[in-house]
Write a structure and sequence with these properties.
It contains 10 helices and no strands.
Amino acid sequence: MPAHLDPPPSAAQPRASRGGRQRDPAADRAILDSTLALLGEGCAFGDLSMDLVAQRAGVARATIYRRWRNKEELVLAALSALDLPVPPLAGLSLRQRLVTLVDQLRHRGQDTPLHRLMGGLLSEAVRRPHLVERFEETVVAARREALVGALRDGVDSGELRADLDLDDAVEILTGPMAARLILRQRPVESAAFAETIVDTFLNGTRAHRAGPTPGTAPENPPPPEEPQP
C-alpha cells in the first residue's frame, strides 16, 4: 500500500469495517493510544509506521488498515481523540462567546498530551504542509466553525463591521494564544489573556466604536497650548 493516499473528507473518522463486521472498540482504543504513546516518546512522524503501531497495540497491521488507510489518517484520528469538545455557547453575548472559545485554547493547549505533541506536528509543517492543513480541517474544524459562527452573528447583528474578513478574524483571535503556548512555551494562568485578546479585537472591529473609556486619551487630542509669556 502506498505511504500516502488522498485522505477522505474526514480523516479523523475511522473507516467502517469491510463486510459489515462488528468493530472492536478495544482495538480502536489500543491503536490510538499506541500511536499517541509512540509520538509522545519522541517518534517522529516520518519514522512512525503501521508496523510500529501494530506491534505496540498488539494487533495485526491489517486491523489498523481496516480503520485508517494510512498513517496520516491514523495520527489525525489520535490527535482528535485528545481534543476537547466545543464548550456550550447558547445564551452568551458576542464577547462572552469569543472569550470562551479563545480561552479554551489555553485549556487544550497547555500542559496536555495534545500540547506536547503539537511541537512535533509543527516540525513537520515544512516537509508536509498538507498534514497541518488536514489537522486544521479535522481536529480544529469544530472550534473554528464555532468562532466563525460567533463572528458571523456579530456581523449580522450589527455589532461588527459588515466588511469583516471572517477567516482573518479567526487567525487574529487564535494567533496570540497559540504563539504564547506553543511557540514561546509560556504559561497562561487565567482567562485574563483571552479577555485581552478579545477586547483588543473588538475595539478594532466594532461597527460603531464607543467613545474613549475613562482614563484613556482621545484618538485625536488637541494640540498643547502654547505657554503664555
